[in-house]
Design brief:
about 300 residues, alpha/beta, TIM Barrel, four-stranded antiparallel β-sheet, 9 helices, globular, binds flavin mononucleotide
């Protein structure tokens, strides 16, 4: 019997596969494909303090091996999330990760405190790729802001904090080191890459927001590189994200140093993707003769050094 369980900051995940925030709505379109109880963890689309609308359309643009999106994170706001969505997530069975984003340090702190008090979350993920409205940059791209926000949230909650890092920086591994020094219990990487497309019929930017985030298989080698280089520098676990479409892709991330993986864009292409990734990882672990999926984590580094 293959042991698929992994541990992130003291929380045991029954398997290392979870949805990437914003790409899997448990209650809606995916119902009927497979039970979310089979997932390693469940996570909400990033929640903000107050309700907000998203960006103007078009919000999605297909690209070679991926897509650009500029959804803009519409949010029902914290109050409704705590009353309606969080209890639903909790009832599914797997560990619950709550993704939050604040516009100021105070707001981050208040969000974390409220999620902690709900007693329905196992971990908190910080979506650090949203703009810092007070100071005009994204949290994940400024060293001091990153350090301050992670430290503030860590102080505000007893729950393990996962810092979701942006690849739109010179060296994401250095930002991971900063998040670790500020007390994060894990990092997830990567969020989407900034990009844009031009609609040549209209002779204007394709997305209503002009720029968007590139995701999907096109970004996978970039994301694997991020995980590989970061694994050499930090001691906390990594959740690997970026272009995972099949179990082979997921195994790449594990070998590069990810303890768990999240599937994003592929959920829109193949609603059974996460189930297939879980099954495929189990088959691979069995085939190579390891007792546990944990034996794969970071193995490419040992091979690499020999
Ligand atoms: C439509 C869409 C919505 C997303 N919404 C969020 C979000 O609310 N919060 C967040 O942290 N990441 C969000 N992401 C980023 C994903 O969680 C993930 O980091 C990214 O898509 C890369 O993984 P992928 O290539 O497997 O899609 C979103 C991505 C997409 C495509």
């Amino acid at each position: 019997m293959i042991d698929l369980s992994v541990e992130i900051a003291g929380v045991t995940l029954p398997n290392p596969v979870l949805p990437a925030s914003g790409t899997y709505e448990v209650a809606e379109v995916h119902e009927g494909f497979f039970s979310p109880a089979e997932l390693g963890a469940v996570i909400n689309k990033t929640i903000f303090m107050n309700p907000r609308t998203g960006n103007p359309p078009p919000r999605i643009w297909e690209t070679p091996c991926g897509m650009l999106n500029a959804i803009g994170i519409p949010s029902e706001g914290l109050k409704r999330f705590l009353e309606e969505q969080l209890p639903r997530l909790r009832s599914l069975g797997p560990p619950v990760i709550v993704s939050i984003a604040g516009n100021s340090i105070e707001e981050w702190r208040d969000l974390a405190t409220a999620v902690d008090r709900s007693a329905s979350a196992d971990m908190i993920e910080l979506d650090l790729s949203c703009p810092n409205l007070e100071r005009g940059f994204i949290w994940a791209s400024d060293r001091r802001a990153l350090s301050e926000v992670v430290a503030a949230v860590v102080e505000a909650t007893a729950l393990p904090v996962i810092s979701k890092l942006s690849p739109n920086v010179t060296d994401i591994s250095e930002m991971a080191v900063i998040a670790e020094q500020a007390g994060t219990a894990a990092v997830s990487m990567v969020n989407s890459y900034l990009g844009m497309a031009i609609d040549i019929k209209k002779r204007q930017p394709a997305l209503g927001n002009i720029t968007g985030g590139l995701t999907g298989p096109a970004i996978r080698p970039l994301a694997v590189y991020s995980v590989f280089t970061t694994f050499q520098k930090i001691g906390v676990p990594i959740i690997g994200i970026g272009g995972i479409a099949t179990w082979r892709d997921a195994v790449e991330f594990l070998l590069a140093g990810a303890t768990a993986v999240a599937v994003g864009t592929q959920n829109f292409v193949n609603p059974l993707a996460m189930k297939e990734v879980i099954q495929g990882i189990a088959g691979y672990v069995e085939q190579v003769g390891f007792p546990s999926v944990r034996d794969l984590v970071g193995l490419a580094h040992r091979q690499h050094k020999q």
